[in-house]
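Quick one:
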Amino acid sequence: MDITNLINQILEQLGLGSLDKPENVTQVVLRLLTILVILGAAYILARILRNLTRRALTRANADPRIIRSLTSAVFYGVLAVGLVIALGGVTLTLLLFVVIAGVAANDILKNLASGLQILSTHPFAIGDWILVNTFEGTVVNVGWRGTVLDTFDGRRVILPNSQIVTSAVVNNSTHKVQRLEAPFTVVSDADFPTIERIAREAALSVEDVLSEPAPQVLLTTLSGATMNVVARFWLTAAPQRQRAVLSEVMVAIRDGLRGEGIALAPPPAAPPAPPAPSPSAPTSA
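Output:
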């Protein structure tokens, strides 16, 4: 294929004419120079506006993460406008740009707006222990696209910001004092005041359990053979320590009940398995 014809076809597709005539060559060169000048001016303007935005937000004592997100949005937004202006006559390129922007803008803008909402409303901070849907861990970073969590089993999770702002977020670090519950089941003929005393003393015997507010022992359900009881207590332990505290409290309750001769109720019996179908008797011919 003739290279000149190939170049002419490309230039015609881009709306720049062809190189068949000298005047067309001049037109193409001027068009390309115009595109370069517009792109250069857009780049310079983008840098200037980015710096002005950074200074204004810094003087306003804005969060550093908000400053990074907005300055990046201003910079690339001006570049995108400059690209559209520079290629305004290039139908194919502009159409491609619109298609790509339409596909990507929804997710990008949604997560960017959600990230700015998180940073401005402060539902949690770096280092907080939060629970979002099934993900639980410590906040490491809040970016323009997602929030980074380190889970307690040593995994790193990146949650899209749009998912966080539309979900219930449990912040376990807002209040230093938190309550845990230790449920257990005993036989129904046991003396409940004795159970109440044992469970309270067991909870208070564990380090990190607070004496004020005082532990509570409540009867939740009562059946013919068993009583379901829950011991509630308050503590200030770190997230990694809370599960260990709960285990220690439950062990102390078990040992205290055994010491008083109170039996824990056995687990409910499994329902009997259905009988296997009997084989059908063979039929004689």
